[in-house]
């Protein structure tokens, strides 16, 4: 990873922009020269102004400054979240074996998250470690969450719900999650926060189904419908429609739910496998459970 100033100079030269255009009103010309040589650091507020003049987002700059690679922790968690959301637990188990024992702190943390996920889906309850409890308390006490913390909440929620020693109000947590998502939504959704919100809703929906609180599960439909589908990317649209189809299996027109899922599978087959929702696996689990529910409720 290069010095921040050195990367700024590279971007500026590629874009054909002068130092005056980039630094005017922010720092002196002499400081700009030292900064671009890597001899001086700069305050974060001034760096954001410089990036704005270059028309480069902080995330894009971090990517460029890291030799055009995502930060290791982001990459590792992205792999975990994809397997987790798609219920690809055999792949997740192998991923843990492949990364366990490595010395880098990022990989240790990522493995810990993955192990929590595996445990929560394989066991009805799990003792909460001191580290996990501290992380949960931190998230509860923080008024605002970062994008990474939004993702972590999705991991911890099933764990704390299954643990009788921790009191958590899912409705309050849902409201807080929604408010934090709004912080990243302006006219558009540049960080795909709505995808995270759909994923969170799907976890809450499944928690209610698993604990047999069908009244609260049925109420989740309104949450899904409140999401502006026009702001979603293709993955988000497919995921939203999928969970509305699962809702139909339980509480609506069962045959229509099956038809919706069949259509979504067809759409998925037209595109790459990368990052896809594992429709067939989740559908198989939920269809069986929905039939049991309908048998009991009739």
Explain the layout of strands and helices.
Blueprint: H1 4-15, H2 19-23, H3 29-37, H4 44-54, H5 58-65, H6 72-85, H7 89-99, H8 105-122, H9 130-141, H10 147-162, H11 170-182, H12 193-210, H13 214-226, H14 234-251, H15 254-269, H16 279-297
Helix pairs in contact: 1-3, 6-8, 7-8, 8-10, 10-11, 10-12, 11-12, 12-13, 12-14, 14-15, 14-16
Structure description:
This is Helix-turn-helix transcriptional regulator. InterPro entries: Cro/C1-type_HTH, HTH-type_regulator_Rgg, Lambda_DNA-bd_dom_sf, TPR-like_helical_dom_sf. Residues 8-61 form the HTH cro/C1-type domain. It comes from Tetragenococcus solitarius. The structure is a single chain. The protein has 298 residues and is mainly alpha-helical. Among the domains are: 4-65, Orthogonal Bundle (434 Repressor (Amino-terminal Domain)); 184-298, no CATH class. 71% of the residues lie in helices and 0% in strands. It is built from 16 helices and no strands. It has helices at residues 4-15, 19-23, 29-37, 44-54, 58-65, 72-85, 89-99, 105-122, 130-141, 147-162, 170-182, 193-210, 214-226, 234-251, 254-269, 279-297. Helix 8 (105-122) packs parallel to helix 10 (147-162), helix 11 (170-182) packs antiparallel against helix 12 (193-210) and helix 12 packs parallel to helix 14 (234-251). The mean pLDDT is 85.
């Amino acid at each position: 990873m290069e010095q921040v100033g050195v990367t700024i100079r590279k971007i500026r030269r590629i874009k054909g922009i002068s130092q005056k255009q980039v630094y005017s009103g922010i720092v002196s010309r002499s400081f700009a020269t030292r900064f671009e040589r890597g001899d001086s650091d700069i305050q974060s507020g001034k760096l954001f102004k410089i990036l704005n003049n270059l028309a480069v987002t902080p995330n894009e700059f971090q990517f460029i400054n890291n030799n055009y690679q995502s930060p290791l922790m982001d990459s590792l968690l992205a792999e975990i979240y994809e397997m987790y959301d798609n219920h690809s637990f055999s792949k997740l188990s192998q991923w843990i074996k492949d990364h366990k024992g490595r010395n880098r702190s990022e990989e240790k943390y990522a493995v810990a998250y993955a192990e929590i996920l595996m445990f929560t889906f394989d066991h009805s309850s799990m003792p909460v470690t001191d580290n996990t409890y501290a992380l949960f308390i931190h998230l509860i006490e923080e008024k605002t969450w970062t994008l990474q913390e939004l993702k972590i909440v999705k991991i911890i929620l099933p764990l704390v719900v299954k643990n009788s020693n921790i009191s958590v109000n899912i409705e309050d947590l849902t409201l807080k999650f929604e408010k934090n998502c709004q912080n990243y939504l302006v006219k558009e959704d540049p960080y795909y926060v709505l995808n995270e919100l759909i994923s969170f809703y799907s976890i809450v929906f499944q928690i209610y189904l698993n604990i047999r609180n069908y009244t609260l599960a049925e109420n989740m439909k309104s949450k899904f419908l409140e999401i502006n589908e026009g702001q979603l990317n293709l993955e988000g649209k497919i995921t939203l429609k999928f969970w509305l189809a699962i809702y139909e299996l339980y509480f609506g027109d069962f045959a229509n739910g099956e038809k919706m899922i069949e259509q979504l599978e067809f759409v998925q087959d037209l595109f790459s496998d990368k990052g896809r929702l594992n429709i067939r696996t989740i559908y198989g689990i939920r269809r069986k459970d929905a039939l049991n529910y309908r048998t009991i409720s009739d």
